[in-house]
Each structure stands twice: as C-alpha cells, then as structure tokens.
Amino acid sequence: MKTAELAAKLGATIVTGKAGIDKEIKGVYCCDLLSWVMSHAGKDSAWITVHTHMNIVAVAVLSEIACIIIPEGIEAEEATIKKAVQENIPILCTGLTAYEVCCIAHDCGI
Amino acid sequence: MNLHYEIPSDDLAHAGEASSSVKKMLVQLGIDPVRIKKAAVSMYEAEINAVIHGGGGSAEVTIDSDKIVIRIIDNGPGIADLELAMQEGYTTASDDIREMGFGAGMGLPNMKRYADELDIQTRPDKGTIVTIVVYFHQ
Fold this sequence. Notes:
By secondary structure, chain A is α/β, with parallel strands linked by helices. Chain A has helices at 3-10, 34-40, 55-63, 78-87, 98-107, and strands at residues 13-14, 27-30, 45-48, 67-70, 91-93.
C-alpha cells in the first residue's frame, strides 16, 4: 500500500506535502528507542513514534523507513517537517493511538 | 575516496548528518544495500556517541573498492569502563537525552553487531577513537 493510501485510511494529516507519498509500505514498526529502531526496523516500514525532533528523519533515512507516523495528536516540529521534505520522508500526524494505527494497517493487509 | 566531516558538540538536531551523507554516497556507488545498512547503522551510533558523550569531534571516512573505513574521533573524557559500556542496556546518558530516544545503552553493542571490524581506543581525558570497517563483498 502506498503512503498516501494509508494516510487516507488512518484519516491522518500528511504534514510534508507530496514528498514521498507514493512510497510503498511493506510493514509497520512501533518503537521510541532510536538505536532499537535502527537495529530492528524493516526496510520500507511505516514507523510509529512519539518523538518529533529532527533526528527522527536521520533515523528514517538510515533505516530506509517509508514514512513516519506521529500518533496521539502530537504535532511535528517545524524544523523536522522541513528536514523530512528535504529527505523525501513523509510524516503523517494522527489523533489515533499507536495501537489503533497498527490495527488499521493490519486491516489494510500490511 | 577520502571524506571528512566535523561532528558538532551537543547538537542533536544535526547529529547523523555525516552518516546520512556517507549512506547516500554508498547508494550512488551501487554498494549492496545490506552492506550499506551495516555501515550506516554503525557510523550513526558512533556519531551520536561523539555528540552526546564526546564533546563533538570529526569523522574520517575512506571508501575503496572492497571496504569502507570509518574513524570517529571525539574530544570527550574517554570511556571509563569499556567492557561495561559494551553491555547492552548500560548507559551514562542523562535523562534529557534518554527522553529524546537516545541513550538506550545500545550504541556500542550496535556498532559491534553491524561492523565487520570494530576497534575502540580510549583513554581518560584523551578522547575516544572508534574505527569501523565494513567490507562490501563478504
């Protein structure tokens, strides 16, 4: 499923415009320990994290994450959004919990 | 090919930029993605450590036809107990750093896991030099 399609299913806001919205998502990974994400997240995953600082973009680039999903109504920082656009990493913001995001992604066949 | 990067002190916003730049270079060179991940993860961890613990420093990277050699040189206090620091979960990071998702005590273990060769030279008050080698054709 493409990132834009998952965003629509989640009712999420894509805060990074059109950057990377056609990326194919092949899994979901949920974790807030950055080293753990680097070590374990699968390529082309949608990564759910409550962190909003700029370094999540570096982690996503190095781990070949398809998109970042920020749950629970948390707002992404402006500098992070700018960096994500530069690096072609979409950021989706949603009021859903991480669990709800996972359930919907599962129902979508991810 | 030789590359040099400055690693700023305590600037977590820009930490990882050297690693990201090297990763892009390896992608352009057509290196196996599995090998790129090994280099990227191990270099990122060393770079973050230099920012958080090492007072900044520099990265010296050499890429040739069969391997990448990454040297991260920091200006920090050195690692007091290297054996302890190599244990997963051991950390000296502050609460502020940990709240940002860093400092999980996985940096050195991740370097050991992903590097084909890892060498750490550290002395009290003399800083730390981490050398990571990843081969492209193993």
